[in-house]
Amino acid sequence: MTTQAQRHTLIGVLGGMGPLATVDLLQKIIEETPVSRDQDHVPVVAWNVPQIPDRQQALAGTGESPLPALLAAVEQLNRLSASHIVIPCNTAHHWFDALAQKSEAPLIHIADATLASVEYLVKNRAKVLRKIGLIATRGTLDAGWYQQRFAALGAETLEPDEQELATLFVPGCYAVKRGELQQGGYLLEQLAQRLIDRGAEWLVLACTEVPPALAAINSRWLDISLDPTRALARACVREWAMLS
Amino acid sequence: MTTQAQRHTLIGVLGGMGPLATVDLLQKIIEETPVSRDQDHVPVVAWNVPQIPDRQQALAGTGESPLPALLAAVEQLNRLSASHIVIPCNTAHHWFDALAQKSEAPLIHIADATLASVEYLVKNRAKVLRKIGLIATRGTLDAGWYQQRFAALGAETLEPDEQELATLFVPGCYAVKRGELQQGGYLLEQLAQRLIDRGAEWLVLACTEVPPALAAINSRWLDISLDPTRALARACVREWAMLS
């Protein structure tokens, strides 16, 4: 039976940052939809056009702003009557408010989607989360989206330090962008280990390049990791499945 | 350096048949693009909306035509100024001419893309192909797209019989659509075995649900299989990389 919500749902994916992270989200939307035939899957239109200036460089003041390209993509998704827009790139959420202002379709924030998954975890698995390790870009760490939400749950956030970002996170992330997932995975696993050593009980993989990299090496830390890309996929499925 | 061809390339993917086959194509486009950073990847917009009547049922006379939904999708991709349109579903190519007629952007036929890959194989690996096993839907087999192209290369095509289609192919294919890739893989591997037993030296996996299923079980037949989804991905990359 098609519900009212389903008839009006078309998830617009503002992707390309990087293209593999977008494919990872699309894959996870399918995995998170419990259906028996093609026609029951979530309708998605994915703008996977990676010709967008580098987000990390823009925030570091060493590259041009991606905002014009992001706005153009939001416009295209609205032209297609997307009902909701999601962005499988954490760092790009720096421009979230500017994009939401220009979009008829509401944007779903990846940190809100992640918070819903953390709350589910706490409630259904009776986990007490005191220390969460946050793996993210400098731009995402500075923005504080995750730290503020975790603090509201009474959890402390552990962050990578500058040296860990420069020697483990950034090269790991750019290895994924080059298609070298295993190399990226080994670097990012070392970063995960550092945060665990400092007391993190749980990890949040808040850069969309990280989950495919850790999956590629079947990292032992995946069992205690929370994946914002999967949380975003679940949020899309919830919009699709919601009864009117 | 951005070439003239790159500035004007936007690959439109008419997907959703099924959604996983579309994700598989997007993944293979990325794998086939030898680049070092996000911005060098092929720009793609994917219409992954699976609310399209079942193609196999339509051709068997037991379901409604998917043509109106396909035409609407082609119209959307043209509105976005797609430069080329590809369809990661072999059976849907039954409506290829009707769609091409209504599309400003040229459509790339998956069997043409596959022929280019077969020719490459013959030329570069000095393979003599005498007997090719074709794994496909009843609709694709009846259409003759692959058989005609293989005959032009001097190769004979071996096809599944009705019982193999009914007991191995169709349940294998619909298992993938339900997300049961391993179960699909085991059924489709049995079908591959039958064609090999009858003398096939090479297999062409001409239903886009088949490559992910055989990959899920790491099938031993993948080494002698040609994947039209990957061939289509290569055709997309060629359009992107082509010098003006």
From TrEMBL, chains A, B:
<dbReference type="InterPro" id="IPR004380">
    <property type="entry name" value="Asp_race"/>
</dbReference>
<comment type="similarity">
    <text>Belongs to the aspartate/glutamate racemases family.</text>
</comment>
<dbReference type="GO" id="GO:0047661">
    <property type="term" value="F:amino-acid racemase activity"/>
</dbReference>
<dbReference type="Pfam" id="PF01177">
    <property type="entry name" value="Asp_Glu_race"/>
</dbReference>
<keyword id="KW-0413">Isomerase</keyword>
<protein>
    <submittedName>
        <fullName>Aspartate/glutamate racemase family protein</fullName>
    </submittedName>
</protein>
<dbReference type="InterPro" id="IPR001920">
    <property type="entry name" value="Asp/Glu_race"/>
</dbReference>
<dbReference type="InterPro" id="IPR015942">
    <property type="entry name" value="Asp/Glu/hydantoin_racemase"/>
</dbReference>
